[in-house]
Design goal:
This protein is mostly beta strands and 78 residues long. The chain is built from one helix and four strands, in the order E-H-E-E-E. It starts with 8 loop residues before the first strand and ends with a strand. One of its GO terms (biological process) is carbohydrate transport.
Length: 78
């Protein structure tokens, strides 16, 4: 079975979040997140997906305006 876009996939995601005032209190900033990832098909039954998320105005960290999160996911299936 092949992916419509080919064996590998490049993806981008965007997110906007407004923290709940009733749960986290008032005066929290809106949070914006962008993500880019690339899924490598290693073999017929395995995939490796590195990703980078860039977070502007982390809602629960008022000490910084920007942070990044790096991820690596491995998937094996039958």
């Amino acid at each position: 079975m092949h992916n419509i876009m080919g064996p590998n996939t490049l993806g981008v995601g965007l997110n906007w979040n407004r923290p709940s005032e009733s749960t986290f209190g008032q005066k929290l900033r809106d949070q914006y997140v962008s993500e880019i990832f690339y899924k490598f098909k290693l073999t017929h039954h395995t995939e490796l997906t590195p990703s980078v998320q860039l977070v502007a105005n982390p809602a629960l960290n008022m000490n910084t305006d920007f942070t990044s999160v790096f991820g690596l996911r491995f998937r094996a299936f039958l």
